[in-house]
Every structure is written in C-alpha cells, then in structure tokens.
Amino acid sequence: MLMTRRAIMAATAASAAAATLSAPSIAQAALPFKQPALPFKEDALAPHISAKTVGLHYGKHHKAYFDKLNTLAKGTPYADMELEEIVKASAGKTADKKIFNNAAQAWNHVVYWEQFTPGGPKRPEGTVAEELNASFGDYGKFIEKAVATSDEVFGTGWVWLTRDDQNKLALVGYEDGNNPVAVGRPAYLGVDIWEHAYYVDYENRKPEHIKVVLENLVNWRVVGDKITKA
C-alpha cells in the first residue's frame, strides 16, 4: 500500500480533528528543537549498518532537519508547538511545506533511532506477535511485505508499520518525509528507504538492507510497547 502526496493531503483534511498520538519518548518540544542523542554508540549497529553510515545519517542528515526547522519555525506559531504537533498542523499546507518536510523528517528519525535501542528481543513476542501474524502470516512474510511495499515508493520515502482502516496492523509506503502521524494514524516502526540510509553499506541493494534491518536490528520491546499502549 502506498500513500501518495495527494492521498496525504486528502487524509489530512479528513482527520484534522483526530486525537493527538503519543510522540516518541525522546522527542523534544518547543523552539529551539534539539536533536536527541543516539540511544547507542555509532558503531553499535555494525556490521548491519556501519558506523560511517550512522555518523553521516545522524550527524549530517538528521541534524540538518532540526537545524532547518529551527530556522523556519522561528517567529511562527509553530515555534511553540511540540514536534509531532508541527507535523500534524503543517501537513497538507502548501505554504508550510518546508516546515512540514523538516519537522516530519526530524520526527521520523527520532522514531527510527529509538527502535534500534540495544537490549530487546529481535522478534515480536506475546500478543504483538499474534497480531503481527494475524496481519502478515509470520515474521518472514512481514519482512517480504516490507520489501514489496518499498517497491511501491518511487524514489525517497519510508515504509511504516501502522494500522489500516480496519484497525489491523499494516505496512504502508510513504513518499519523501510523509508518515502516518500526518494523517492521524499511529507510527510503530519505520524503515528509512532514502538512499542516505543504506547506500554507503549496500549501494543499490535496498531490499537486502531492509531485510537485514528487520532481521537483526529492531528492538521489538520498543515497538511492541507502542503497539500495546496505542
């Protein structure tokens, strides 16, 4: 399933009155927005994601989103909002597209790094595993679906574990920095398919990168807590 820009704008209008979802626990609120520290050392994800990639991804790309957002939000109503509120309030507004892009990518990456926090199980457990299997069959098929969903996204974007219209767990592809939060849905797990997330280590082998991340790096206690508390 793919959420295009047009679909995002339509869904945003339809869900404007939706209740606020829980932001990542390490997200910052109000200007100046501060990039949270990594919950692990830069080499902690190796050999699956190299220290070089983490350094560039976190230290250059993610940092730039926060820096640009601070510049763009200064003197606007967004300066007093929490990061997730900015994503929701600016989604679908042409005049605020730059603010949305940087706020969404700043928020996306907070979730991204948090889900790799060391120490948790690498597979879903308990009721979360049961719900995931009910939606996808088993964990192997979940990974296959993630790869297939990434192919629906032309160019840059994300694959998010969220919920569909029937409230079942679903994998949805989003272009650029768009995410489920912008349309009033939960964002449990995000796979970054921008080239800066994988090209240093995997070159053009995006499917391999997705498989490696989902097989070896996701802390399912972090993700599972979001699912069970939603």
From TrEMBL:
This protein's name: Superoxide dismutase
Example GO molecular function: superoxide dismutase activity
Catalytic activity: 2 superoxide + 2 H(+) = H2O2 + O2
Role summary: Destroys radicals which are normally produced within the cells and which are toxic to biological systems.
Enzyme Commission code: 1.15.1.1
Transmembrane intervals: none
Pfam families, per database record: Sod_Fe_C, Sod_Fe_N
Top-level enzyme category: oxidoreductase
Keywords: Metal-binding, Oxidoreductase
UniProt record similarity statement: Belongs to the iron/manganese superoxide dismutase family.
